[in-house]
TrEMBL record:
Keyword Nucleus: yes
Source organism: Volvox africanus
Main localization (coarse): nucleus
The entry's keywords: DNA replication, Nucleus
Residues annotated as domain DNA polymerase alpha/delta/epsilon subunit B: 470-681
Protein's name according to its UniProt entry: DNA polymerase alpha subunit B
InterPro entries on file: DNA_pol_a/d/e_bsu, DNA_pol_alpha_bsu, OB_DPOA2
Domain DNA polymerase alpha subunit B OB: 366-444
A Pfam family hit: DNA_pol_E_B
Length: 764
């Protein structure tokens, strides 16, 4: 009878855990769970509920282990002891026998964890789990530890010691532009209740887990640190536009003419880049086509052959004319009706796969009636503003110079593949028989920027050097309170694996933090004081221990201590508080910089998420395309860090500074922090080659070329595109839990950078 009762209870326990999708490894673990439930006087359902609450907080998997059962049982036993030690109060206020049940979703407290963990705890975590460190109320009232108003001890040592003085900000902890509030050492300590439960971040068990890795066979951070001496100076040199002047920003003060002018400039710049990219192939194509062609359509009635001409022969020049008459076709009156072409077959790309000749999209209007293929330029938009794109509602709007701002329908039914989004600049090659619908036979959506030329021995030596780069994107604090524990853990990692460059992307003081948004998250402190006390002080202390490292800061639109606009000026005052300009670099948002062997392009705006919600694409059946790197290809192909228009809500896009959003050169690494899944991928040109210019070739690392530049040794420009490493480091903090960051290691050597780079996306 007793055996049957135990079997029934065991079956009920298994059913209770299975209802919450938990799995037992073997019968011994089931028996252990039954024993613990009996000791705690809990039913199977109650014990499963308690385990589920603890597992959600601790971010456990669905496998039930003996160690996890013991942790839950120890916590529940301590809660029961606390409950039994409290005085019983009856309904009338006198002592009675009323018993309170243990809350189903109760969280473990700090006092219960340090002596209950059965696995080795790193020293940093043991220090964080120290009750005296976490709960100042349990420490001596006469202690001199420096505390912030959140009740947590600072990273500095006790006030008055040499270590505390050494870890103050340069210049006595005050920097120009960051206020003159009371120094942290003299701020009154505010105690927090000693029963404050731990956060999900403190209970995480996946610290240091590698989420994604690129080129796993190459040396990692630990190996690189052992093999290569640290301390080499890695200068960070901005590329492209001059520094942005904060006094010239016009967001929310732009007039309509400013926006229209910016959109026109984008279309014309894209068209001119296509013309420049195809100009170098025109001469060779002319010689080839003159030998192969006999009487092209559009050459006049006397020269045209009496027999029909295949369509692929009519696609040799922007107007369908032979190269020697292309200029006459492009100089025709805008809006004129071009002579029809006799067609006997559909467009074929098997022989060439590209349109020959130099493309001049600004010679024709999108509304010109044409019965022969022509090049036009414009931008893609939906029929209804704000509506999602689809194949039936695509419009093509030309610029004012070439098309007078005319709009026509864009027919993409002839295209095997495309990726489109609102505001995208395109150059289309095709027909417009009625003047109201442009039938695209080819659509150029990607014209990558030129490669950075490698000139001089110093530049060549820099390309062959090594680099260790750590990149993280905010928020850097937890949502439960304004606790910067993720930033502390990141700096602890950087102490164990010192990088050459630490690149931090905003937001640093997040305007969307729940406590800040509610008005009580920073209590009596200003946003500048939070930035100084929670972020800059920690970074300055780490910089003192690692003087050879370079720290780079880039703001975000959500930063309370920066101007909320894109493009965004740099945080110059914050960088000055950390050290000299060559060791503490302030980057504007976005930026393209030269960093040792790498050309790095970064933007703290969530471009990937915005493009993911707006893109309309067609992929040939059976073609495997990784969507996230393909989304990132729009930044390269459009030569813009934010090619989407209208911008997503909260972007605060300032179109008056369109040029500051341009991508000046082709980067080696493209950093695109996003709320989407973190990744580190190699974006191959083949992923977007269908939307590239005619004559586009993939850059090679042949002996006669400069590695990774796509240029010949003689310096002749080449229409080519090299692979790019695209990285989404994720967010360092995700709500009340920890997030991810990325560690990039480039091994020294003469091989192309792509063959020497390794990237690890890790959990903090």
């Amino acid at each position: 009878m007793a055996a049957a009762t135990g079997h029934n209870q065991q079956t009920a326990l298994e059913r209770a855990f299975a209802s919450k999708s938990y799995k037992f490894g073997d019968s011994a673990i089931v028996a252990r769970a039954q024993q613990l439930a009996q000791q705690l006087h809990l039913t199977a359902e109650s014990f499963a509920n308690q385990y589920d609450s603890f597992a959600l907080i601790s971010d456990w998997s669905m496998d039930v282990t003996a160690q996890r059962l013991k942790m839950v049982a120890d916590y529940l036993e301590s809660e029961q002891r606390k409950e039994n030690s409290r005085p019983r109060v009856g309904p009338g206020g006198t002592g009675g026998s009323a018993i309170k049940a243990v809350p189903q979703a109760a969280k473990p407290t700090w006092e219960d964890l340090p002596d209950k963990l059965d696995y080795p705890t790193p020293s940093a975590k043991r220090q964080a789990l120290d009750p005296n460190a976490v709960n100042p109320g349990t420490a001596s009232k006469e202690g001199t530890a420096i505390k912030s108003n959140t009740g947590r001890p600072s990273t500095a040592a006790a006030a008055g010691t040499p270590q505390a003085a050494a870890r103050q900000l340069p210049g006595g902890g005050m920097s120009q532009g960051w206020g003159t509030s009371t120094p942290m050492a003299t701020r009154p300590a505010t105690s927090t209740p000693s029963t404050q439960p731990p956060s999900a971040f403190a209970l995480r068990v996946n610290q240091g887990q590698v989420v994604a890795v690129l080129h796993e066979h190459l040396p990692g951070p630990a190996t690189y640190s052992q093999l290569h001496q640290r301390g080499a100076n890695v200068p960070i040199r901005p590329l492209g536009q001059p520094a942005l002047d904060a006094g010239e920003l016009l967001f929310m003060m732009e007039v309509l003419e400013t926006k229209v002018h910016a959109l026109d400039e984008r279309i014309m710049d894209f068209a001119e880049s296509l013309t420049a990219a195809t100009r170098h192939t025109a001469s060779s194509d002319i010689a080839r086509t003159q030998n192969a062609a006999v009487g092209m359509p559009g050459c006049g009635a006397s020269a045209c052959p009496p027999t029909p001409v295949p369509m692929q022969n009519s696609m040799l020049a922007p107007g369908g004319a032979p190269p020697h008459t292309a200029q006459a076709a492009t100089n025709s009156t805008p809006g004129a009706i071009h002579p029809p072409v006799s067609v006997t077959s559909a467009p074929t790309t098997a022989e060439r796969g590209e349109v020959l000749g130099m493309a001049e999209p600004l010679q024709y209007s999108v509304a010109d009636m044409s019965h022969q293929p022509v090049w036009v330029a414009g931008r893609v938009l939906a029929e209804t503003e704000g509506a999602p794109l689809n194949a039936e509602s695509l419009l093509l709007e030309g610029c004012r110079n070439a098309s007078g701002g005319a709009r026509v329908r864009l027919d993409v039914s002839c295209l095997p593949a495309y990726r489109l989004f609102p505001g995208q600049s395109v150059c289309a090659y095709g027909l417009n028989p009625t003047g109201g619908k442009f039938i695209a036979q080819r659509l150029v959506t990607h014209v990558p920027p030129p490669q950075l030329p490698v000139t001089g021995p110093d530049a060549a030596a820099a390309r062959e050097s090594g680099l260790s780069l750590v990149v993280a994107a905010g928020p850097y604090c937890l949502t439960e309170e304004l606790l910067y524990s993720p930033l502390e853990e990141l700096l602890s990692y950087c102490t164990a694996q010192p990088p050459d460059v630490l690149l931090l992307l905003g937001p640093f003081v997040d305007s969307e933090h729940p406590g800040v948004a509610a008005g009580g998250g920073i209590a009596d402190r200003t946003a500048d004081s939070v930035m100084r006390e929670e972020v800059l002080r920690r970074l300055a202390a780490w910089r003192i221990d690692h003087p050879s490292a370079t720290v780079a800061l880039m703001p975000a639109v959500r930063d309370l201590t920066a101007l909320p606009v894109l493009p965004q000026p740099s945080m110059t005052a914050a960088a000055q508080a950390l050290g000299p300009p060559e060791k503490a670099v302030a980057l504007q948002n976005p930026s393209t910089v030269s960093m040792g062997p790498l050309v790095v392009a970064a933007c703290s705006a969530d471009v990937l998420k915005a493009l993911s919600a707006s893109e309309h694409s067609r992929v040939p059946p059976g073609t495997a395309v990784e969507r996230l790197p393909a989304l990132a290809s729009h930044v390269l192909g459009q030569r813009s860090f934010y090619p989407l228009y209208p911008a997503a809500p909260g972007t605060c896009l300032d179109t008056s500074h369109y040029s500051q959003l341009q991508l000046p050169v082709m980067p080696d690494v493209l950093l695109m922090p996003s709320d989407l899944a973190p990744f580190a991928k190699v974006l191959q040109p083949a992923a977007w080659m269908a939307g590239g210019p005619p004559g586009m070739e993939v850059a090679s690392a042949a002996p006669g070329s400069v590695a990774g530049t796509g240029k010949s040794a003689g310096g002749a420009p080449a229409v080519s595109a090299a692979p790019v490493v695209v990285i989404n480091p994720g967010r360092l903090s995700r709500g009340a839990a920890g997030g991810t960051f990325v560690h990039v290691v480039v091994s020294p050597g003469g091989a192309p950078v792509l063959q020497r780079i390794r990237a690890e996306v890790k959990r903090v």
